[in-house]
Design goal:
heterodimer, A: 241 residues, alpha/beta, 6-stranded mixed beta sheet, 4-stranded antiparallel beta sheet, 10 strands, 38% helix, 27% strand, globular, B: 338 residues, mainly alpha, ABC transporter involved in vitamin B12 uptake, BtuC, two-stranded antiparallel ribbon, 1% strand
C-alpha cells in the first residue's frame, strides 16, 4: 500500500471532525473520497498534508502511513521534497502576482535536476496547451479553468508521483470539467497515483478505480467504483436517484 | 565587456569619491550628506526585503540598527581607543584599518541575532500582530541600552572618532566615505542576489500565499528566518557605519521615529522594488537636507509631501518595477532581473 490511513480521529478545537476513518491508496490507483459538505473530506486531506496553522487539524488518534512509515510528524514542505506528494488545494492557491511560467518554476524549488525540470515543463505544456499560450501572463489574469490547470500543472512540476486533488472541478464549466478529468486519467495511465476529493460524485466515480463515501466524519461506504455507482444507498444520497 | 561595465563604473565612482574627499574639494558637510545617503540606502533596501518582498510589516528597523551601532562601537573602542571604562587599547591602532570592516560585520551579525526576536514569532503570527512584535523589539533594544550604565545608558556612548582617526593616521585616506560606499554597494548586491536566486524566490512566494508556498516545498519557517535575519543584519551594518560617522551614539537616535523614517523611504520608493528603494533613499536624504532651513516645520512639510505622493502615486515612485522597466536601455549595461 502506498498510503494507509488507520482509524484517523481529528479535532478542530472541541469539534470532532473525523470519527475514526480508515482507507488506503495503492500505487497506480485513482481513489476518490466523496461526500456532502462538511463530511470531512478536506479535513482528511489537510491531515495528510500537515498544512501550516491555523489550517492544521489536530490528529487525536490514528495514524497516516506513507510507504509504511508514519508521516504524521513531517512538515508539509518535506512531504513534497522527500515523499513526492503534491497537493492541488481547494481554491487553487496560485501565486496571482507571478506569471504562469514563474508559478511553474517556483514549484521546482526543491528540485536540483535541471534536465528533469525541462522535461517536466514540456510535459505540463503538452497536457495543458493553454498554459503555454499564456506563459508570460500574470496568473491572476487567467480564467478560472486556466487557473485550475495551472494549479494542477504546478503540482506536477514538483516531480510528484502521488497527487492529491481537493475539489478540482469546483467552479468549472462542464466542458472544462471533462477536459480536466480526461487529463487526470491520462496522468494516471502514465503512472501517477491520484487521491481525488470531489463533491461531484458521479464524475469522480466514473474516473476512479475505487471510492470511499464519507458521511459526517464516518466512512459510510466503500468499494470499487462500479459497486458504489450501483449501490442504491449511494445512488439515492449522492448520485441523484 | 558588458559583464564588467557596472563594476568598472562603481570602481571609478569610488576612486572619484575618495579623491574628492581626500583633497577636500567637497566640504565636510556635503561628504556627510553623501555618507548618510549610503546608510539610508542600506536601511531602505534591507527593510524592503521584509516589508516589500515578504509582505510583512516590520516597523522596528531602528532597533536592529541600534544593536549594530552599539556592538561595533563598544568593540571598536575597546580594541583601539583609550577609554575610561574599557581601559587602554587592546590592539595596536595601526591594525584598525584591517579590523574595522570586521567590526562592522560583527555589528551586523549581532543585529541579525537580535532579528531572531522578530523572526521566531513570525512563524506563528503575521500581519498586524507581527507589526506589534516588531515595535516591541525596537523598544526592548532601546530600553536595554538605556539601562546599561557601562555603555553610557541614556547619555550615549562616544570614542569612535579616535578609531577613525587611528585609521587615518595609519594610511592617510578618507576611510569613512570609502567604507560606507563599499558596504552600501555590498548590501544592495547581496539583496539583489538573494531575491533573484531560486532560493530567494521563496520570499515573494510567502508574500503571495503561505500555504501554497509550503505545499510547493518552500520551507516557509526557514525562509522567514533567513529574510528577517538578513534584513536586520544589514540594518546592523548601517547602524555600525552610522555610529562611526557621527562618533557618538545615543539610544535617542534609534527610536520608533527613525524606524518610521526608514518605512517612509520604503513606501516612497515602491514595495518590492530594489532600485526604487535606492532612489527614494537618495531623494529622501536630499529632501531632508534641502528643507533643513525650515527647521522644525520640516516635519510638517515632509509628511505632507508624503500624503500628496500617496494621493497621486499610491504605489510609490517605482511601484514594484525596477529601473530598466522604465529605461530599457539600462539592460545593455546590467541584467537587473534574471
Amino acid at each position: 500500500m502506498l498510503l494507509t490511513v488507520e482509524n484517523l480521529k481529528v479535532k478542530y478545537g472541541n469539534i470532532q471532525a473525523l470519527q475514526g476513518i480508515s482507507f488506503n491508496v495503492d500505487k497506480g490507483e485513482i481513489v476518490t473520497l466523496i461526500g456532502a459538505n462538511g463530511a470531512g473530506k478536506t479535513t482528511t486531506l489537510h491531515s495528510i498534508c500537515r498544512l501550516p496553522p491555523p489550517e492544521a487539524p489536530k490528529v487525536v488518534e490514528g495514524d497516516i502511513k506513507f510507504k509504511g512509515e508514519s508521516i504524521l510528524s513531517t512538515e508539509p514542505h518535506t512531504l513534497v521534497s522527500v515523499h513526492n506528494i503534491a497537493l492541488v488545494p481547494e481554491g487553487r492557491h496560485i501565486f496571482g502576482n507571478l506569471t504562469v511560467k514563474e508559478n511553474l518554476t517556483l514549484a521546482t524549488y526543491a528540485r536540483k535536476d535541471t534536465e528533469g525540470i525541462k522535461r517536466q515543463l514540456k510535459h505540463v505544456f503538452e497536457l495543458f496547451p493553454r498554459l503555454k499560450e499564456r506563459e508570460n501572463q500574470r496568473s491572476e489574469s487567467l480564467s478560472g479553468g486556466e487557473q485550475q490547470m495551472l494549479a494542477v500543472g504546478r503540482a506536477l512540476m514538483t516531480g510528484c508521483d502521488f497527487l492529491l486533488l481537493d475539489e478540482p472541478s469546483m467552479g468549472l464549466s462542464p466542458l472544462l470539467k471533462y477536459e480536466l478529468f480526461r487529463t487526470l486519467k491520462r496522468l494516471n495511465q502514465e503512472g501517477m497515483t491520484i487521491l481525488l476529493i470531489e463533491q461531484n460524485a458521479s464524475l469522480a466515480l466514473h474516473l476512479a478505480h475505487r471510492g470511499y463515501v464519507l458521511d459526517t466524519g464516518e466512512m459510510a461506504a466503500e468499494g470499487t467504483s462500479e459497486e458504489l455507482i450501483n449501490d442504491p444507498e449511494v445512488k439515492r444520497a449522492y448520485l441523484g436517484g | 565587456m558588458k559583464r564588467y561595465n557596472v563594476q568598472i563604473i562603481l570602481a571609478v565612482a569610488l576612486a572619484i569619491l575618495a579623491y574628492l574627499a581626500q583633497e577636500e574639494i567637497i566640504g565636510k558637510y556635503a561628504l556627510s550628506v553623501l555618507m548618510f545617503m549610503g546608510i539610508n540606502v542600506i536601511l531602505s533596501t534591507s527593510l524592503n526585503l521584509v516589508n516589500g518582498y515578504m509582505g510583512e510589516f516590520s516597523c522596528g528597523h531602528a532597533g536592529f540598527m541600534a544593536v549594530g551601532a552599539y556592538v561595533s562601537s563598544v568593540l571598536g573602542v575597546m580594541l583601539f581607543a583609550k577609554d575610561k571604562v574599557f581601559g587602554p587599547a587592546l590592539l595596536d591602532p595601526s591594525l584598525s584599518i584591517w579590523v574595522f570592516p570586521l567590526i562592522v560585520i560583527i555589528g551586523g551579525i549581532a543585529a541579525a541575532l537580535a532579528g531572531l526576536l522578530v523572526a521566531i514569532p513570525s512563524f506563528k503570527t503575521r500581519g498586524d500582530y507581527l507589526a506589534i512584535i516588531t515595535i516591541a523589539a525596537n523598544y526592548i533594544v532601546i530600553s536595554v541600552v538605556e539601562n546599561i550604565d557601562t555603555i553610557g545608558g541614556a547619555r550615549g556612548f562616544m570614542g569612535m572618532k579616535s578609531v577613525v582617526k587611528a585609521m587615518g593616521k595609519t594610511i592617510d585616506m578618507p576611510w569613512m566615505p570609502i567604507w560606507v560606499f563599499i558596504f552600501t554597494i555590498l548590501s544592495v548586491w547581496i539583496i539583489r542576489r538573494f531575491i533573484s536566486s531560486t532560493f530567494g524566490k521563496g520570499v515573494p512566494a510567502i508574500n503571495q500565499d503561505e500555504i501554497a508556498a509550503e505545499i510547493m516545498s518552500v520551507n516557509t519557517n526557514k525562509m522567514k528566518m533567513v529574510a528577517f535575519m538578513l534584513s536586520s543584519g544589514l540594518a546592523g551594518v548601517a547602524g555600525a557605519l552610522f555610529a562611526y560617522i557621527l562618533g557618538y551614539v545615543n539610544p535617542g537616535s534609534f527610536t520608533i521615529l527613525k524606524s518610521t523614517e526608514v518605512l517612509v523611504m520604503v513606501y516612497l520608493g515602491g514595495m518590492g522594488s530594489l532600485s526604487g528603494s535606492v532612489l527614494s533613499a537618495i531623494l529622501f536624504t536630499l529632501l531632508l537636507e534641502a528643507l533643513r532651513p525650515l527647521q522644525i516645520i520640516k516635519w510638517v512639510v515632509v509628511p505632507f509631501l508624503l500624503i500628496l505622493l500617496m494621493q497621486f502615486r499610491p504605489e510609490g515612485i517605482m511601484g514594484n518595477r525596477e529601473l530598466p522597466d522604465f529605461f530599457p536601455r539600462l539592460k545593455r549595461f546590467y541584467a537587473f532581473k534574471d
